[in-house]
Specification:
By secondary structure, the chain is of the alpha/beta class. It is elongated and about 90 Å long. It starts with a helix and ends in a 9-residue tail after the last helix. The N terminus is likely disordered.
């Protein structure tokens, strides 16, 4: 087992690094016993989400949340679940600028005997700027107590949106899982 330990550590670091591209915040009502809830229903997507998400990504997100809720002992019900789950997505275009400075220099110096030396030199530097445009997405999951019609948990994930659909198929469940780590009921170990 000792010879495999470094490999396992590297694998764990790689998995964590792959999931770390989303910043997560969450808040919930600390007075609520979340273990009392057994079923959930989707409220649906916020109106603007259709303009932002295609049907494939909406399905990926819904399935990822369904998997996470299932791990926590909750069963999906088309209508009238103990919990009502509402999803919302917001996107924003952002830009990152990087500057790279390269320089060259020449110099000459001399010193005869003892004491301070003398010299001269010259140089030149060039700065190159590169602009990187990307889209930041914010995924909000609001969970309501259906009977009380009261918000009891909110999880928010924010990160750069993957442009490759095949990679999104893999990263969406990872990002949803990271959001759900803040849900008050955790999956059994």
């Amino acid at each position: 087992m000792k010879k495999y330990k470094p490999i396992l550590i590297l694998l764990a670091v790689a998995i964590i690094a792959g999931c770390s591209s989303v910043a997560v915040t969450a808040d919930w009502d600390k007075t609520v016993d979340f273990t009392q809830f057994k079923t959930y229903s989707y409220y649906g997507w916020a109106d603007n989400s259709d303009q932002i998400l295609n049907e494939f990504d909406k399905k990926r997100i819904e399935e990822a949340f369904a998997d996470e809720f299932s791990k926590r002992g909750l069963t999906y019900q088309e209508e009238g679940g103990d919990l009502t789950v509402a999803l919302f997505v917001h996107t924003q275009q952002e830009q990152q600028v990087t500057a790279t400075t390269t320089g060259t220099g020449v110099g000459y110096g001399g010193r005869y005997g003892y004491g301070p030396g003398w010299g001269w030199g010259g140089g030149m530097a060039t700065t190159t700027y590169k602009t990187y445009n990307y889209t930041v997405g914010t995924l909000v999951c609001d969970v309501f107590d259906t009977k009380k019609e009261q918000l009891i948990w909110e999880g928010v994930g924010k990160g750069e949106i993957e442009t490759n659909p095949q990679k999104r198929e893999r990263t969406i469940p990872q990002k949803v899982a990271k959001i759900m780590t803040y849900y008050p009921v955790q999956p059994p170990k």
